[in-house]
Design a protein that fits this description.
The complex is a heterodimer of chains A (617) and B (320). With 617 residues, chain A is mainly alpha-helical. Helix content of chain A is 61%, strand content 1%. Chain A has 25 helices and two strands. In chain A, helix 2 packs antiparallel against helix 3. Chain A is globular and about 85 Å long. With 320 residues, chain B is mainly alpha-helical. Chain B folds into two domains: 177 residues, no CATH class; 137 residues, no CATH class. In chain B, 63% of the residues lie in helices and 0% in strands. Chain B has ten helices and no strands. Chain B is elongated. Classes of the chains: A mainly alpha (617), B mainly alpha (320).
């Protein structure tokens, strides 16, 4: 019931937020309330919850709850940052739609429902990308989004039918498996912007998406990757020449992403572009988890995805805050940012720690494991190279921050706390009113929201007076501010501080998750509901499975679900066996054991004798 | 004797052909709706009424979302590049191939679903290869419908939640298309901005060339060899470019052919004015949305040959 409550909250919140779009304040209120409700329902999700909907069983696990909680918390924190730095109008409904579809995908026991829902979860990216449809980039971004959507849908359906069906009319069924693996990996790579499919992501970074980048590049790819990884070991773990070639192709893309993504982040000077290439680089680990085709890679991949979601959300929030606070996103203009905003500096350090980890931390070990399992031995050094390259561009950001500040940075408020001071004696209130009006006009037309608000505040307080004085030093005859007004003005003056604190909080949450806190280490061992549906059935015949990897016994948390997998599809009346001896396979995961000698370990409704021609292929 | 699945499969293909070939956006949407509604019936046995209802409602909702975008933005499709007859031939050929092939043996669903699915997938290829956002959305929808039909043929009938998920996916695709397709006003504004940028770029190039020509014609004592050389090169390259763009049978009269390097700068300016871009004629009242001819980042603008008649710039802002 808690799972259904989460899904309904997300769907209702999305609809309400979209309906309230014409009313700015109401829309923000509804969006924040919906995200908060989604976060609450995700946190309260029962790990053993299950429900049957439309003949398909939905179930939650500890990891499902934690992953959805991470998504909801990231969305809420980013929208709070957006309240300060500039409200991302369509991020909240898009995030809610993505969470609803991702919730369906990772809680379903039916492969087709899971993959179709995962594909549907990529559609809300259009909500964010449509912001630029009236700009010269609009057509290019729109075409890229729709092509990505098409690829994801085709990959999902092809993978689903491959997973379900064992009756391919082919001598070498591994060709079909290889095709499905390749298309699925291509969908993950294109959606996450892996090299050489990074052009749409780079275009998004130049289109001023700001906080919306996180939806397209982090939340959606992780949800889709999580579903794609479910069958990684059980379906694609079989040996075969075609599969091996497909794996090599994906390994090449992963290596190029790990290295060239970091190089791209080092070569660019715009913060948004640096952030995008950083996200792209770290998305390469999802591809490595795919190429591993081993059950040993499942747990590291899950904890990596959890840390990836929160750390990269914090990184996007950091970039948006820096750009807003200093009214520029160019590193040349941002020299000395760290001196003016030490809290943002702390947040960046925390983000680096959460992303790269430290020796002994779960995230560090997960990265190492994925490199070890996903790449051949001779190129394991690329994992270390990726870490060093990542450190290089993060160090560049920090180094720019400690340089002597530019005039732009010096004139910014920064995230030091401020208290409103009454700086002049207002003999003539009309003078003050004129100053405020002038500041309002110029600031709202020429400056960023943060700078504009700051200018107006300073004008209201007379802070730009040539001879500032403290209120205690001079009596004021015309401008008396009560403590209530002062608090209100202090709240407005310290908006950079508030944004920095929210970013720091997000980064610290990421550090805790990266260290295995909040139950992340244990939850990552439980997996999603689909993992258990797709797990290889026991081998009652005792026949060797032919090199197929078997799931290693893991320390399953007690909160793991105990779902009874029932046939999600009514059995189809089986026609007469074909000449090859195959029988029709109902497209559902069942609890009926299947002899492990069949080439693909998808569950079948009727046991197939191990000596059939199919098994001997 | 044709059963329901066969009739529905033919309706699916018919809807796909209409969606791909029609130029009126509303007819395209109607074709998509026909294909989507009929696709839910290409099954044997038919799904239960709740699942069919969910698919039909989803198809109608998706069509409505697209209809709103088409109706409000005067968005039309570019239509098929191969024509109606060509699309019909391609669709029938793919349908026949789908009836005869057996990638999965035995099929868990009706063979008509496989045939109709293959036909839709083939018809979706050309729209997906283009750069028209609306046609691309049509292509994605057809591809999704075709893929779902083939899944139904290979994996058997889908349970109710899968039908619901498919309906939600169709609505999501339609919503994404309607959000991403640029409105006619936006296209007009983009074209106007592009024209202005092109005019400014041409004027800037002209000014630079004039400056270099002036420098090249100064007395030798006043200029360096490098300046002289660069001035001559600029003049030569500008003339060559303008000559190439006009073409051998272009509209440049013989007396306006390039003169020797000693041309007077004023005459050169007059000649270079031919290289200024000509604003494209305004579109008809029901414009077709297609990508605006924008210069790519980093690409220098290629000025189009301009007619010798004097034209006033278009009224870009709708002011009298």
């Amino acid at each position: 019931m808690t799972l259904i409550a989460f899904l309904l909250t997300c769907v209702a919140g999305m609809l309400l937020t979209l309906l309230a779009q014409p009313f700015a304040r109401l829309s923000r209120l509804v969006a924040l309330a919906s995200l908060a409700a989604a976060l609450a329902t995700a946190m309260l999700m029962n790990p053993n919850d299950s429900a049957t909907l439309g003949e398909v069983q939905l179930g939650s696990t500890w990891f499902v709850g934690l992953f959805l909680t991470a998504l909801a918390a990231s969305s809420l924190l980013l929208c709070i940052v957006g309240l300060i730095t500039g409200w991302p109008e369509r991020l909240a409904p898009a995030a809610l739609a993505t969470m609803a579809a991702a919730g369906f995908a990772i809680s379903s026991t039916d492969p087709i429902v899971a993959l179709v829902a995962a594909a549907a979860a990529t559609a809300p990216a259009a909500l964010v990308a449509s912001r630029v449809r009236s700009t010269p980039l609009g057509t290019t971004v729109g075409v890229a989004e729709l092509r990505t959507l098409a690829l994801v849908i085709v990959a999902s359906l092809l993978a689903a039918v491959t997973i379900l069906n064992t009756n391919w009319n082919s001598d070498d069924t591994t060709f079909v498996l290889a095709l499905a693996f390749l298309v699925l990996a291509a969908a993950v790579a294109v959606r996450s912007g892996a090299v050489p499919f990074h052009v749409p992501a780079a275009l998004l970074s130049r289109s001023g998406e700001g906080l919306g980048l996180v939806l397209s590049l982090v939340w959606i790819p992780t949800g889709f990757g999580l579903v794609a990884l479910s069958w990684n070991a059980s379906i694609f773990g079989v040996p075969g020449d075609w599969l091996d070639r497909a794996v090599v192709a994906v390994q090449l893309v992963a290596v190029a992403t790990l290295i060239l993504g970091a190089v791209g982040a080092m070569l660019h000077d715009e913060i948004e572009e640096i952030i995008v290439y950083s996200i792209v680089q770290d998305a390469g680990f999802i591809l490595l988890a795919l190429t591993a085709r081993s059950a040993d890679a499942a747990q590291p991949a899950r904890i990596w995805l959890l840390a990836f979601v929160i750390a990269k959300s914090a990184l996007v929030a950091w970039a948006a805050t820096v750009s807003w606070a200093f009214d520029s996103s160019n590193l040349g203009d941002l020299r000395g940012w760290l001196r003016r905003s030490p809290i943002l500096g702390l947040a960046l350090v925390a983000i680096v720690a959460a992303t790269l980890g430290w020796p002994g931390s779960p995230v560090f070990e997960a990265r190492g494991t994925l490199v070890r399992l996903g790449l051949p031995d001779p190129i394991h050094f690329l994992g270390t190279a990726a870490i060093l390259l990542s450190l290089a561009y993060y160090a560049r950001l920090l180094a720019v921050g400690v340089l002597p500040p530019t005039e732009l940075v010096r004139s910014a408020v920064g995230d030091w706390p401020h208290w409103p001071r009454l700086a002049k004696v207002a003999d003539d209130e009309s003078v003050a009113a004129t100053a405020i009006a002038t500041a309002t006009t110029t600031a709202t037309t020429t400056e960023s929201p943060g700078m504009a608000a700051n200018s107006i505040d300073q004008a209201q307080l007379g802070a730009d007076s040539p001879a500032p004085h403290d209120s205690e030093e001079l009596p004021h005859r015309g401008l008396h501010l009560s403590i209530r007004h002062r608090l209100a003005m202090a709240w407005r003056l310290n908006r950079p501080l508030q944004a920095s604190l929210v970013v720091l909080a997000t980064a610290l949450i990421a550090v805790v998750v990266a260290s295995g806190g909040f139950g992340a280490a244990d939850a990552s061992q439980s997996g999603i509901t689909l993992d258990q549906a797709a797990a290889p059935p026991p081998n009652p015949s005792g026949i060797d499975s032919g090199g197929q990897p078997t799931a290693t016994p893991s320390a399953e948390p007690s909160a793991g679900p105990t779902l009874q997998l029932v046939p999600s599809i009514p059995p189809v009346p089986s026609p007469a066996p074909s000449a090859s001896g195959n029988v029709s396979a109902p497209p559902a995961a069942t609890a009926t054991p299947t002899p492990a000698a069949t080439p693909t370990p998808a569950a079948t409704a009727t046991p197939t004798p191990a000596a059939t021609p199919t098994a001997s292929q | 004797m044709l059963d329901t699945a066969a009739f529905a499969a033919m309706a699916v293909v018919l809807g796909g052909v209409v969606a791909v070939t029609a130029r009126d956006g509303r007819i395209v949407v109607l074709g998509l709706m026909l294909a989507a509604v009929a696709a839910s019936l290409v099954a044997s046995p038919l799904p239960d009424s709740l699942a069919v209802t969910a698919r039909i409602v989803g198809a109608m909702l998706a069509a409505y979302v697209l209809w709103v975008a088409v109706d409000s933005g005067s968005v039309d499709s570019a239509g098929s590049a191969v024509g109606l007859v060509g699309e019909i031939a391609v669709a029938i050929a793919a349908f026949v191939i789908g009836l005869s092939m057996r990638p999965v043996d035995p099929l868990a669903g009706p063979v008509e679903a496989q045939a109709a699915g293959l036909s839709l997938v083939v018809m979706a290829v050309v729209p997906l290869a283009g750069r028209d956002v609306f046609r691309m959305g049509v292509g994605v929808t057809l591809l999704t419908l075709g893929s779902s039909l083939m899944v139904g043929a290979w994996a058997g009938p889908l349970p109710a939640l899968e039908q619901l998920a498919m309906a939600a996916l169709l609505v999501g695709i339609a919503g994404a298309t309607s959000l991403l397709v640029p409105s006619a006003e936006a296209v007009d504004a983009l074209e106007a901005v592009a024209e202005e940028a092109a005019v400014e770029e041409a004027a800037r190039q002209q000014a630079e060339t004039t400056e270099l020509v002036t420098a090249a014609q100064r007395p030798p004592a006043d200029r360096s060899a490098a300046t002289r050389r660069s001035g001559f090169e600029a003049v030569a390259s500008t003339r060559a470019r303008a000559h190439d763009e006009s073409g051998p049978t272009g509209s440049i009269e013989p007396e306006r052919r390039p003169k020797p390097m000693t041309a007077d700068p004023i005459e050169m300016d007059d000649w270079l004015a031919w290289g200024a871009p000509e604003p494209e004629p305004r579109r008809a009242s029901t414009p077709t949305v297609r990508p605006a001819p924008l210069p790519k980042p980093g690409e220098t603008h290629k000025p189009a040959p301009r007619k010798p008649t004097t034209r006033s710039r278009p009224n870009l802002h709708g002011k009298p």
